[in-house]
Amino acid sequence: MLSRSVPAGVHSASLPVTLLFGVTPATVDYAGTAPGFVGLNQINARIPVGSQTGSAVPVLLSVGGRQANVATIAIAP
């Protein structure tokens, strides 16, 4: 899951975080609080090699088994 070290005062997510670009799972490097911002969370992830490309690739985020609204991003080949 998330095994990277984080700076002091930053807290990683306590629930499992998954992120899909289309149907391809991403590597989530960090999910948790955003340093210097109260009430703001961030997710650092890598777009996987071989993921779908196009102007509106669906991004599916799930935290603790609950799916967020689907967003789209452009991914160039």
Provide structural commentary.
The chain has strands at 17-21, 24-25, 27-33, 41-46, 54-63, 66-67, 71-75. By secondary structure, it is mainly beta. It is globular, with a radius of gyration of 13 Å.
Distance between the termini: 27 Å
Task: State the low-pLDDT regions, or none.
Answer: none
Percent range for β-strand residues:
over 45%
Bulk shape: globular
Q: Which quaternary structure do these chains form?
A: single chain
Tell me the major beta sheet.
5 strands, antiparallel
Helix content: under 10%
How many runs of DSSP E, i.e. beta strands? Answer: 7
Average pLDDT across residues? 87
Radius of gyration: 13 Å
By DSSP (H or I, 4+ residues per run), the number of helices equals 0
H/E order of the elements?
EEEEEEE
Question: What structural class do the secondary elements suggest?
Answer: mainly beta
Give me some keywords for this one.
two-stranded antiparallel ribbon; 77 residues; 5-stranded antiparallel sheet; 0% helix; 7 strands
Detail the topology: elements first, then pairings.
Blueprint (H helix, E strand, L loop, with lengths): L16 E5 L2 E2 L1 E7 L7 E6 L7 E10 L2 E2 L3 E5 L2
Antiparallel strand pairs: 1-2, 1-5, 3-4, 5-6, 5-7
